[in-house]
Amino acid sequence: MGTPLILGIESATSRVGCAIGGPDGVSAARESAEPRRHAESLVPQIAETLEESGVTMADIGVIAVDVGPGLYTGLRVGITTAITLAHALNAAMVSVTSLELVAHEVRRSCTNRRIDAVIDARRGELFHAAFGANGDPISEPAVLDPHDLVTMLANEAPETLLVGDGVEAHSETFAQGGFHTDGSSVYPSAETIVELAVAAAAAGKTVGPDSIRPLYLRGPDAQPIGIVAPEAEPTGETMRTIRREAVARAARERSEQERE
């Protein structure tokens, strides 16, 4: 059995997007950088990518989502939407962290050095993780003060490449530390989620929707997945329509398969 069609959902930062693809690449993608409009943007984006790809929700076999770390409300939108659709479709899921997405984006053109991914956590802090020259993680995701990170890296990895929107947010601090900051405009993308999810699905590394957990890192943000901020829950007629269509199409597909 081949790798199923994958829907990737990205909402961990100030940007929100989705992509559809498989082993042959991404067939359609959408992204929006409008602040605080994740809930309004994501579901219409999914509908548009389905139409552009010429597929329906019933064709989606895996839903992959960025589980953070990132901005709380954005993560709520993406993860809630992904889990809702996975339950409706009986689809498998893949979780990817925002930090490994940023590192992977840069790894394509930088294959022989350490990469430290930094995402703006607001409140004067950064989400951080380090990845070795082979791409494997060499530190756990953490939330750090930028000055503490500079001190740490000056001691253990002065030649590392810093990437992610956290570089731009704290550019003066990193510049004063003398660090390389190529790729500072890199954000996690839904296209990269699909790329990583293809490999995960092919290796059998999928999970059920009940296994998906957000990676908040910060104590005040670490609320259970069942507690949904009113402004973060993607309700509305579009979401209800997609849910209804997902259930109906999946049922029709199962019925057709049983008749064959």
Topology:
Blueprint: E1 5-10, E2 16-22, E3 25-32, H1 38-53, E4 60-66, H2 72-89, E5 92-96, H3 98-107, E6 115-120, E7 126-131, E8 142-144, H4 146-156, E9 161-163, H5 165-169, H6 171-176, H7 190-202, H8 237-259
Parallel strand pairs: 1-4, 4-5, 6-9
Antiparallel strand pairs: 1-2, 2-3, 6-7, 7-8
Helix pairs in contact: 1-2, 2-8
In short:
39% of the residues lie in helices and 20% in strands. The protein is built from eight helices and nine strands.
Provide structural commentary.
The chain contains 8 helices and 9 strands. 39% of the residues lie in helices and 20% in strands. α1 packs across α2 and α2 packs parallel to α8. The chain has 2 domains: 5-98 and 188-259, ATPase, nucleotide binding domain (Nucleotidyltransferase, domain 5); 111-176, ATPase, nucleotide binding domain (Nucleotidyltransferase, domain 5, 2-Layer Sandwich), CATH 3.30.420.40. It has helices at 38-53, 72-89, 98-107, 146-156, 165-169, 171-176, 190-202, 237-259, and strands at 5-10, 16-22, 25-32, 60-66, 92-96, 115-120, 126-131, 142-144, 161-163. Mean pLDDT is 85; it is low at 220-234. The strands form 2 sheets. It has a 5-stranded mixed beta sheet with strand order 3-2-1-4-5, sandwiched between helices. The protein has 260 residues and is of the alpha/beta class.
